[in-house]
């Protein structure tokens, strides 16, 4: 636009002449031409050699104009439009002023000369390009020095934004990195949690490796045709995105939904959105990459962008997709009559743990004792569900079937942290594996009976004579939450230090309302926190742990 101010008076004269010469337009196109030329002076001029972001309102067209440098009969130019969301419509219109109006004819401009001779109209307008869609599209053409160009953009779906790049300098480097002749991404390997990709090098990487790098976008929804389309999609999911993939590797503040990982010269940004994770990985100039930490049996979409670090402009390879392999079925552990198995479940991976049992009796009983966390239990018999629920504490399932029926138990943690559960199966209903339990497993302490060196606790018993053992542990103030959260309710006294044992006693009462016992623990330190535990033992010797109780002795007496 070096000669724009030279052109401006000339085109003002053009509009003035048009307004007087077209007194009674004979056609609709003549009236439209007059209106469009007049609107030029109330519109925006498109900058040359610079990427421009344009915001579009639904159903409202937006126009930009440009005039190219005078001095040559033909000037090459290129226009690249990148939709950042929904499909748009855009077109390029050329206005050619007549020779008589300009005061001279351009050498070789036959169209202008013909119009001048015919005197049918002082100027002409023609649509030289139009497009509708959401792909990145580039138009390359040659301009007459007597032409004025208008770009018109329209979004019919919703408000959106686009980027437009006009260039008339064909001798300098490209703003947008170049794509290879074959811009496809090849999937060279898939695993349960990995996918390996490769693509042909961009010519820009080979020419300017210090200014160009590749970035990969991974998501579970669909491919993206441009980098700004991907960023718009992530923003529309309700999160704020940092500037263009943070490709410059400059520091910035991440949102709570984002995780940034920088290792081995690779930058990874994980955006947690409603439709899943969107990963952004920048790997320098390597054109082969293995994407790690994917979920098994999941379809992923992969887009590679070659990015100019100096301008943040990018070009997109043709996206691809791949499905990770199904995770192999874990080897099932066999359950045996009367023998318990304690299983630790990974809460982060949400994996099922499977146990199998082949019935040797028609009636059997599964027992689940929750040790830590929360666990979901699914029991099937010959492939059909017979029990499905989240368990807490102690849970029995009494089932009937046929000899040699196959039972499968699937266990899964319902928490983010690890959970654990003890599982047992027995055909003996008359001989329970666990003791008869009271209505509550809570331990109560009496504040008024606390002294500087003793506390009194109480707990419920049953109608069945059983053994109860009391243990104590001295803890600090900052250990209370950790101790209560880390309690393994399946562990017995064997996991405790001998010095923590206080006493063991037997008791019961045929009247369940009076099956309560108390115990005063002496020899404690003043103003000190203690963790108390009670273990109940039944006929089988398997213990049940009451809920731990923290009590503090008085500081002064």
What does this structure look like?
It is found in: Secreted. By secondary structure, the chain is mainly β. It has 4 domains: 107 residues, Jelly Rolls, CATH 2.60.120.510; 118 residues, Sandwich (Immunoglobulin-like), CATH 2.60.40; 94 residues, Jelly Rolls; 110 residues, Immunoglobulins (Immunoglobulin-like), CATH 2.60.40. It contains 7 helices and 36 strands. It is elongated, with a radius of gyration of 39 Å. The N terminus is likely disordered.
How many domain units? 4
**Which structural class is indicated by helix and strand composition?**
mainly beta
- From the 3D structure, determine the CATH topology of the largest domain: Immunoglobulin-like
The quaternary organization reads as: single chain
How would a crystallographer describe the biggest sheet? 7 strands, antiparallel
Q: What is the tally of beta strands?
A: 36
Average pLDDT number: 79
Task: Tell me the span between the first and last alpha carbons.
Answer: 92 Å
Taking all Cα atoms into account, the compactness measure Rg is 39 Å
CATH C-level class of the largest domain is Mainly Beta
- Classified in CATH, the superfamily of the largest domain is Immunoglobulins
The coarse overall form would be elongated
Share of residues in helices: 10-25%
Question: What CATH architecture label of the largest domain applies?
Answer: Sandwich
Strand content: 35-45%
Put simply, the count of helices is: 7
